[in-house]
């Protein structure tokens, strides 16, 4: 986790800009809030590490990297507008740092793509969404940890209700023709994701 502040500076250096003072600290505190168990700095680190292996497939890699930093920056476990609030925070913060309006809008749209309510509208949106969903194709031990972490975030939901809702979410992913839209990610993770989802669904 100690690598994140250095990574943040590198991200901004690639834009030839200096980040607003204190913004990194604000983001890291947000990612470390006590209600989080999966949507933590661990998830941010995993997303950034995977992106490093996929950077060559991005049209605007700086946009994706900025979007990753902000995509779960606001996470209210009972909220329904986390992505929108995170995207708005991104626009405000990036504008304050001198990022041009077009890039701010692209980052906003990338974050909103993680709502998973519509097909990604661009290859970069598809790549970002695939990175965010890569946990579904994680090795068995990490997927089991993820399952426990999500359960902890929703511990406030009655167990029987959680089981029904969670099963429906997992079945929704499994029912997709393709879980991953980016060919290189699909090649790596599609089958393992389907195996993980089928096993998780059968456990309810």
Kindly describe this structure.
- This protein is 64% helix and 0% strand.
- The chain contains 10 helices and no strands.
- It is globular.
Short description:
This protein has 204 residues and is mostly helical. The chain has ten helices and no strands.
Question: Can you give keywords for this protein?
Answer:
globular, 64% helix
Strand content: under 5%
Please report the distance between the alpha carbons of the first and last residues.
Answer: 33 Å
How would a crystallographer describe the biggest sheet? none
Question: Mean pLDDT, nearest integer?
Answer: 96
The residue fraction in helices comes out at: 55-70%
The count of β-strands is: 0
Q: How many helices?
A: 10
Which spans have pLDDT < 50 for at least 5 consecutive residues? none
Radius of gyration: 17 Å
Give the helix/strand class. mainly alpha
Sketch the topology as an H/E string, one letter per element: HHHHHHHHHH
Oligomer: single chain
Shape: globular
Present the secondary structure layout:
Blueprint: H1 4-13, H2 23-31, H3 41-54, H4 61-70, H5 82-96, H6 101-113, H7 123-132, H8 140-153, H9 159-174, H10 183-202
